[in-house]
Amino acid sequence: MFQGLALIAIAIALTLILSYVYLANRANNGLPKVQVTIGEAQIQADLAVGMVARARGLSGRASLAPGHGMLFSFGSAGYHSFWMSGMKFPIDIIWMRDGVVVGVTANVDPQIGAQVWQLNTYTPPEPAEEVLEVPAGYAAENGIVPGSRVIVTRPE
Predict the structure, then answer these.
(1) Looking at residue 66, what DSSP letter applies?
(2) Which helix (H) or strand (E) holds 51?
(3) Between the CA of residue 17 and those of 13, 39, 55, 129, what are the distances in Å?
């Protein structure tokens, strides 16, 4: 019984923290912009810098325009996990390392209505140092597959 109460307390605390982060930062408050080129595809991406921006990700947004996304850059390769907390639309997750796509998780369901502890987590098929989230179907429509070359252009 104690374990069940502890899990509920953790879930409530996590929900409150994520809600605070979302409400405090619900506008796209000055996130740096980068251009990500994968093959012929050009994606204008918000760069999720820091723990708060990474935790918020795309949660709370109503949609994501075609050709737009969010880039998470971790600085070192690893099995960085993602979930769909607060998401309102499906996405493709593109896992990248050393300028190459190492995996694509397509059409990730936002799991609207699921409780925090019920959300699926997604990890790359091999270590990744950068992760790009784009609208669902974008990867297939643009021929983005493992092995595709990636160029990230950061502002000067």
Answers:
(1) T
(2) helix 50-56
(3) 6, 38, 10, 26
- We report the CATH number of the domain holding residue 11 as 2.60.120.1140
3-state SS assignment for residue 71: strand
Distance (Å) of CA 101 to CA 45, 96, 104, 148: 16, 4, 8, 5
Among all chains, which residue has been given the structure tokens 């050393």? Answer: 98
Cβ 129 vs Cβ 73: under 8 Å: yes
| Mean confidence (pLDDT) of the chain | 85
Count of structural domains, the chain: 1
Tens digit of each residue's pLDDT (9 = 90 or more) over 49-61: 878 777 787 888 8
Say if residue 32's pLDDT is above 70: yes
pLDDT for 22: 46
Structural domain that includes position 61: 2-153
Q: Considering the entire predicted model, what is its pTM?
A: 0.79
